[in-house]
Amino acid sequence: MTPTDRTHRTVDALVIGAGPAGLALAARLAAAGVDRVEVLDREQYAGGIPRHCHHTGFGLRDLRRLMTGPDYARHHIAAAIRAGAVLRTSVTATGWAAPRTVDITSPTGLERITATAVVLATGARERPRSARLVPGTRPAGVLTTGQLQQAVHLHHQHVGRRAVIVGAERVGYSAVATLHRAGAEVAAMVTDQPRHQTHPARHLGTRLRYGFPLVTDATVAELTGQGRLESVRLRHRDGRTADVACDTVVFTGDWIPDHELARSAGIALDPGTRGPAADAEFRTGEPGVFAVGNLLHPVETADIAALDGRLAAGPVLRHLAGRPWTPGALPVRVEAPLLWVSPNRIAPDGPRPPRGRFTLRTTRFLTRPVLTVAQDGRTLHRGRLPRTVAPGRPFHMPADWIARADAHGGPVRITAD
Amino acid sequence: MTVTTTGDLPGEVYDVAIIGAGVVGTAIARELARHRLRIALVEASDDVGNGTSKANTAIVHTGFDATPGTLEARLVREGYQRLTAYAAETGIPLEPLGALLVAWDAEQLAALPSLAEKAVRNGYDETSILDADAVYAREPHLGPGALGALEVPGESIICPWTTTLAYATQAVRAGVALHLNCPAGAVTTGEDHHEIATPRGVLRTRHLVNAAGLYSDEINRRLGHEEFTVTPRRGQLIVFDKFARGLVDHILLPVPTALGKGVLVAPTVYGNVMLGPTAEDLGDKTATGSSADGLASLREKGARIMPELLAEEVTAVYAGLRAATEHGDYQIHADPGRRYVAVGGIRSTGLTASMAIAAHVAELLTDCGLDPGPEREIEPVRMPTIGEAFPRPYQRADLIATDPAYGTVVCHCERVTRGEIRDALTATVPPGSLDGLRRRTRALGGRCQGFFCGAAVRAQFDAATAAQDRTEARR
Ligand SMILES: Cc1cc2nc3c(=O)[nH]c(=O)nc-3n(C[C@H](O)[C@H](O)[C@H](O)COP(=O)(O)OP(=O)(O)OC[C@H]3O[C@@H](n4cnc5c(N)ncnc54)[C@H](O)[C@@H]3O)c2cc1C
Ligand SMILES: Cc1cc2nc3c(=O)[nH]c(=O)nc-3n(C[C@H](O)[C@H](O)[C@H](O)COP(=O)(O)OP(=O)(O)OC[C@H]3O[C@@H](n4cnc5c(N)ncnc54)[C@H](O)[C@@H]3O)c2cc1C
């Protein structure tokens, strides 16, 4: 055997990533009678992020009931297998040999799989401390929520005694619960925003139960400690600083899609989401390559990712049936303080996005903003949102203006004021 | 093979003891191990290469821009040859990318010919001067305004972690006793041998080599010497995501000024791109943190050199401290009366020069009365491939076929397999911490910094450490 021997196979649909999005899609495709649907995941266990979210709050929108993350993951795994999809774990897609041909490493060796449809469902992660350029020493005790949850729930590892949580969107509140479970106290939750960004009931419930200070309008100026973290220096918007003694800091939120495979295929990314640019039918710029789930919208809840998977089944089936690859080519962009919009490619004469709406994020609180959609100076839509929008939480915008866009014009721009 | 991390030191009198297991100390240990000598290498921290040697810009310099005639110039030139050959032999990742010294203004452009001449005086005659078009042909993503460059084809990038580890591994296998967690304290020099106080008991040795990096001046004083004082000069660096690697294909150096080598942009052997370092004189030898100002100034400089780089994600930020002194040259001094050699002031080229420094120190020890005896062949070492220039285990069907653990990817960003982590944990010089494991395998060193694999890698580390503790307890 030469060092690079690979077995080569062909499948109909290859789904990369067995999180809620990939599993829900695979289940639909297999149930619709697609011969060979293969789902790969590089982790030892399928299920994606919900595997290690031991709190409840999963499944409301797609399954119409509330379950814990692991239960939710098990549900989707079972459904995919029952429908006839082939589910493989400890299998990493490492790159591309050709368009729609993926190279794979697993304990059984190297493979190359060519598929008629490749679906990227690789999810998203939190930016770590380094990517946020937080200065200071490099002690142990610096985590993201993903690492924290895995340490506590999957590996029953000891974390520190006293933690600072950076970020006050919903995942930060999950971190509070996980830290509590691990026997650690929360010294403070800190956000650069003027208030928290989760649902008020969640905030209040968590505060009442665990009682921790929420520091607003502040950023992390520095970490100190040799060996182990000793304190976190916070800088308030007015310039005052304060040191909070702690041995653990959890950087939460601030999402980035796991776009490695997409980017290494040369697939164009959207400048806002940093995931592949994709249209209302989950098509990327690369023929036969679809993208679903948090790879497209970092980050939405698991049930939204699963709904993506369901909705993508139609377009994937049509592609498998031989429909020509004509993805919406017109980019939809956002301007600051908006962060991203998904989907972000449209075809004016094509279908509306899923559920007839665009999903957006903002980087700061906007009180009942007016959203304007314009193309080449021409206003396509203008409307006031009924509510205040918060960073870290999605909001939506109707899609009925799509038909008014010029397929041959410049990018469509969404602004907020 | 002896590596100790706890317990009393052996009572024997060593022929040579080396204080400090950085790249310099381990190189010296390896060099001396080529003779039948009883050698101890003592290190204050829990791992080799844990000081300055883990946090540099990882370039093997040709020595083209050294000050001609200095000891540093000679040892860098020799060290370059020796290390390049050694890397090929042991599998230390090394890529001869070549450097471009980019001139951004007329003054810098005018300085290029004299730099080329200086290179010749340093024994390096392969440089050439490029005009702006040639520069952009080689590096199309360079920011606007480059007027020309001096091309130095021999400058290379290397893995500094594997280098130190290879020296240490080979030394230990050849019989050197490596004592970790063993800070050397007071030194009493007798007629026949030195007695060095450590928390783990007294270390006795006939000859003493001080390779304590930032602390070499303090040890030197304990031996009654005052030749130099170390002032830590901090260098902060930003490491960009692997997706930046396509932007740059050379080591991009600034034209040197009075203030030092300046900020460079260079690929790493792991496939990232590095921006840095800063140069800040500090009073604190432990100040290896980064600062907001330092990072801001790097980003500002980087934006000029390569604007597109700044749009990429950042993987890591770190800082190292150069052991700068009041002198312009290395501070390597022998005191034959005390059977002592000080290796101080190995500022910003010690990685390159390490093997040549070691050979030089071996000679000085002979001058100090050490009889090394005949030279012998020592067992060559082959280090794990953690660079990107050769296939890594996850890409090798042959390895995976013999052991599926090489097909089980644990750290996804860096594609480190269970088999590689296991090997590192049971190696001749095993890591004392997760950080040490990262330097041996790259696990935890990728873009997610542990979001996906942090807990799993720690679980494997903890299990191996617990197993080791059990074996030690049984002994
Ligand atoms: C810390 C955290 C807490 C959260 N809490 C909640 C919550 O309380 N409630 C809620 O509804 N949502 C929550 N979410 C969001 C929810 O987890 C996601 O919406 C959902 O998991 C997204 O599903 P997905 O299928 O798009 O991606 P993921 O679940 O991220 O799955 C992606 C999968 O792709 C695999 N993969 C990636 N690259 C490769 C490759 N190259 N080869 C093979 N496999 C690959 C990964 O291993 C992973 O299993 C949380 C997210 C995080 C990060
Ligand atoms: C930012 C930066 C960039 C650089 N770039 C390059 C480059 O591109 N190329 C290059 O060739 N060089 C470069 N260098 C220089 C190079 O890193 C150093 O010259 C080299 O690492 C010095 O090695 P050392 O063994 O002398 O010191 P160290 O690595 O610091 O080793 C000294 C060891 O001694 C130990 N020690 C100290 N006191 C005691 C004691 N009392 N008892 C026991 N042990 C003790 C310490 O714990 C430490 O491990 C750079 C340096 C910096 C900071």
TrEMBL record, chain A:
Domain of life: Bacteria
InterPro entries (alphabetical): FAD/NAD-bd_sf, FAD/NAD-binding_dom, Metab_Enz_Cyan_OpOx_G3PDH
Occurrences of domain FAD/NAD(P)-binding (ranges): 12-306
Keywords (A to Z) from UniProt: Oxidoreductase
GO molecular function, one term: oxidoreductase activity
Protein name in UniProt: Oxidoreductase
The species this protein was found in: Streptomyces antimycoticus
From TrEMBL, chain B:
UniProt organism field: Streptomyces antimycoticus
Protein name, entry field: FAD/NAD(P)-binding oxidoreductase
Annotated ranges, domain BFD-like [2Fe-2S]-binding: 409-459
Matches recorded under InterPro entries: BFD-like_2Fe2S-bd_dom (IPR007419), BFD-like_2Fe2S-bd_dom_sf (IPR041854), FAD-dep_OxRdtase (IPR006076), FAD/NAD-bd_sf (IPR036188), G3P_Oxidase/Oxidoreductase (IPR052745)
Pfam families attached to this UniProt entry: DAO, Fer2_BFD
Domain FAD dependent oxidoreductase intervals: 15-364
Domain of life of the organism encoding this protein: Bacteria
